[in-house]
Every structure is written in structure tokens, then in C-alpha cells.
Design a protein that fits this description.
Blueprint lengths: L1 H21 L2 E5 L5 E7 L3 E7 L2 E13 L3 E2 L5 E14 L8 E13 L3 E8 L2 E8 L7 E7 L7 E5 L12 E5 L13
Antiparallel strand pairs: 1-2, 2-3, 3-4, 4-5, 4-10, 6-7, 7-8, 8-9, 11-12
Length: about 190
């Protein structure tokens, strides 16, 4: 009887632990708790962003193309680490604000292949960066930063004619479902 209970307990623990290891969706909230980033590791690194009950971005993905490989395609998650950044940075040449507040919650996801992606979730936005521990020179050839909106929105875009810009072009108004990769470029 005791052996049966011990076996059942071990089986329950192993099932719970195994499902924890295979779970790949990780949530991180902003410091004020209103903005939520949900990261899902599948064939790519997907993420969604919500504010309160409103879904803002859905199943976006990212990758970084190096000369000989693409980071973020078929990723194998090794470990994760959450953290907090709460600092104030004093500007050398103060403008409107002499001190810039840097306050966010972080999620670092370490992947097989000596690279990581770090997400930062602020009260008013989300950022990410790739980090590598690769030896030698790494030449970045490109990057996929794909935004997917959960519905058709009216986007207000500044669409310059080239990369040399004063950032003063008039805004155009485009439905997100109609905006194509072949349309004039826009900057964020």
C-alpha cells in the first residue's frame, strides 16, 4: 500500500514537472501591471502584447539573420530568467528632462546555439534585443520584425521617400490590413 502511494506521488510529480518543462508560453507584466507580454516559443519566437483586456499585437515574431545562420528559427529554449530594472540616468546635456527613468520588467530567454533574446516590458511599451555569446565576428545580414494586429486598424504613418529624412514628412492614414510590404517604407 505504501509503495503504491509513493509511486502515485512520484508519477504525479513527474507529470507536473514534465508539463512545466514543455510549457513554452511565458508572460511578463509591466511594472504597473497593465501591459502584458506573452512569449510563445514554437517554430519561431512569437509574442503578443495586451493592455488590460485589449489585445494590441497578436502572434508577432522576430529573428536575426547572421551570415551563416538565422537566430530565432526553430529555437530550442534552454532557460529563462526574469528581472527588474529600476534606475535613473542623468543626461550629460539635459534637455526637457535632466533625468531619464528606466523602469521595466525583463525576460531573458537563453536558446541553444549561444544566443538569447531579452524582452523589456515598460509601462508604456515593449522592447527586445538579441544577445550572442558567439565567438569571432558576427555579421548581421537582416532581421525579421513582424507585427500582426488582431484586427484592422487605422495606422498613421510617416512614409518618407528614402532613408535620408528630417522625420517631418506628413502622415498618411492606412488601414493595417491594406498595408503591404511593397508600399512605401515607414519608420517607427
Amino acid at each position: 500500500m505504501k509503495v503504491y502511494k509513493l509511486f502515485a506521488l512520484l508519477l504525479t510529480f513527474a507529470t507536473a514537472w514534465g508539463s512545466h518543462l514543455s510549457a513554452k508560453v511565458i508572460d511578463v507584466k509591466s511594472p504597473n501591471g497593465e501591459l502584458n507580454l506573452s512569449v510563445d516559443v514554437k517554430d519561431k519566437i512569437y509574442y503578443s502584447v495586451s493592455y488590460g483586456n485589449d489585445l494590441l499585437l497578436k502572434d508577432c515574431y522576430l529573428n536575426l539573420q547572421l551570415e551563416n545562420e538565422t537566430l530565432g528559427n526553430n529555437p530550442k529554449l534552454r532557460s529563462t530568467k526574469k528581472g527588474v530594472i529600476d534606475e535613473s540616468v542623468k543626461r550629460e546635456i539635459p534637455l526637457k528632462n535632466a533625468v531619464v527613468k528606466n523602469h521595466c520588467n525583463t525576460l531573458r530567454m537563453n536558446f541553444a546555439g549561444n544566443y538569447a533574446v531579452e524582452f523589456r516590458v515598460f509601462d508604456n511599451g515593449v522592447a527586445y534585443r538579441f544577445i550572442t555569446d558567439k565567438k569571432g565576428e558576427n555579421i548581421v545580414m537582416g532581421e525579421d520584425f513582424v507585427l500582426n494586429f488582431p484586427a484592422n486598424y487605422k495606422a498613421h504613418l510617416s512614409q518618407p521617400n528614402g532613408f535620408k529624412t528630417s522625420y517631418e514628412y506628413p502622415y498618411t492614414h492606412v488601414n493595417t490590413e491594406e498595408y503591404k510590404a511593397t508600399d512605401r517604407m515607414s519608420y517607427l
